[in-house]
């Protein structure tokens, strides 16, 4: 097993065309992980491998790679962080951008993430927060997602780290340069256009019947978002026709399916009333698992972690077990580690469902409770 680090290459600074110029100094470093499985077996959660020293933006850095997450909450993820390796350094600000690379060495957009602007000083970072630390990411990529992807090849993959250091804003004399008027570029509105397409139903070629309601959609959009829909609509054994296909969905509420379609077209979820928030996220977690929508599943997991209480803990724990949501299961288990919370949960309707559907989970809870007492 080995981890290789390439030489850092400095990229040319980017400048503005106006008279007031904000410049950045950038550099990048390649992290080659070879023998991914062996490294994962050898390093427990919280243990990391530190890279060799490299230069980025006139500073010295190292990368900390956690193959099994930095903390127990993120044990299902790879964690990665940028560490300053200079002494006696005045405070300065920088960003780190981590990118999973495909087999052609191109950053994968869905797994490219940039930290907030943060302050580094004397081999320490000031203002480190919780969760997503500003110097890196506790949840850079789920291990199971990486292992199922084409980006892990022969037990190897690559991560690129870009170091971005803003320089002071200054004024330049550009009397000899013709004035350039900056062109305002609006933010992307692709999701709005796709949302309008869903609402207008123009060119829709599939109809879903869900709990007495009808929803029209476009096969190509659904197939692009979900590998399950892609196999259903365009698989090798699928017969292509010109008529609009009608599909009956018997295992979802109409409101949940409507929210699912909205997410597939716009990558966002609608707002749900307070009393429906937890229930809808439970329904959508099931749908996300069914249609292999990893991002939607993580959104639902995150939302449900915020709605765990004695009245919902048993139901959410059951869902977490049935749909392989390890982080959600861990949070539920931690919540129920309190004897009072466990006692109140036993008296809820969800407890009976948990006992019938997941007896091993209930046995595990009881065992932990007995050990703690």
From TrEMBL:
Which stretch is the leader sequence? none
Q: Which domain of life is it from?
A: Eukaryota
Q: Biological process GO annotation list? A: protein ubiquitination
Residue ranges occupied by any MATH domain in the UniProt entry: 26-163
Q: In which pathway does it act?
A: Protein modification; protein ubiquitination
Name the InterPro entries for this protein. Answer: BACK_BPM_SPOP, BPM1-6, BTB/POZ_dom, MATH/TRAF_dom, SKP1/BTB/POZ_sf, TRAF-like
Sorted alphabetically, which SUPFAM superfamilies does this protein's record hold? Answer: POZ domain, TRAF domain-like
Instruction: Name all BTB domain ranges.
Output: 204-273
**Pfam families registered for this protein in UniProt:** BACK_BPM_SPOP (PF24570), BTB (PF00651), MATH_2 (PF22486)
Q: Spell out the family assignment given in the record's similarity comment.
A: Belongs to the Tdpoz family.
What name is this protein filed under? Uncharacterized protein
Species of the source: Eleusine coracana subsp. coracana
What high-level taxonomic lineage is stated for the organism? Eukaryota, Viridiplantae, Streptophyta, Embryophyta, Tracheophyta
